[in-house]
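We emphasize that the prediction below concerns an isolated chain of 203 residues; any contacts that depend on oligomerization or on bound cofactors are therefore not represented. The input was used exactly as deposited, without trimming of termini.
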Amino acid sequence: GSGEKAFVSGTDIAEFAGFTADDGVAYERRMEATMTAIEAIRVPVIAAIAGACTGGGSALAACCDLRVGAQNVRIGVPIARTLGNALSPGNVARVGRLIGLDAVKTLVMTGQLLGAAEAQRAGFLTHVVAEDESLDGKALALAYDLTALAPLTLRATKETVRRMRPVELGDYEDLLRMVYGSRDFAEGVAAFTSRRQPRWEGR
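Result of the prediction step, given as a token string:
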């Protein structure tokens, strides 16, 4: 990430205006292809996270092999109180691999955000920088340390973990269609862009 405000705080909400169920499924397929491409990188990938790491940002960070967080990180998936969309099955699996599936469910259902210490305790962050440490410096030092290790061992470990958690989007497409094709999702997008509270109907 670059800067202190956000690692990734999610998609540009304007992109969701007028979304249909088909658009939602196509969007999730694009996101899944992106996440899969990151996971397929042969060398270790380190996320340097400052500020907001929310929604798709939490999934993007979970694709990385190691995650270094600044003291100001806020990690979570507040979609139940903002847009009313869904976390894709692949991204539930990614974040769940780090903190457990029940913990992912809790994050989504409560909309809570984890600070640095909580995220490290939960297993999301592998390192948290001290107040007087540089985030980029810590991430670069970690990368340098990895160069001294056996590259094939690192590659085999990455690939082993990747192969152990296949998720087929098609098995969950009905859930994505239910959410992205709903009046609630359209309301969530309209409310977010208008800076007002959404009025959920459950349909």
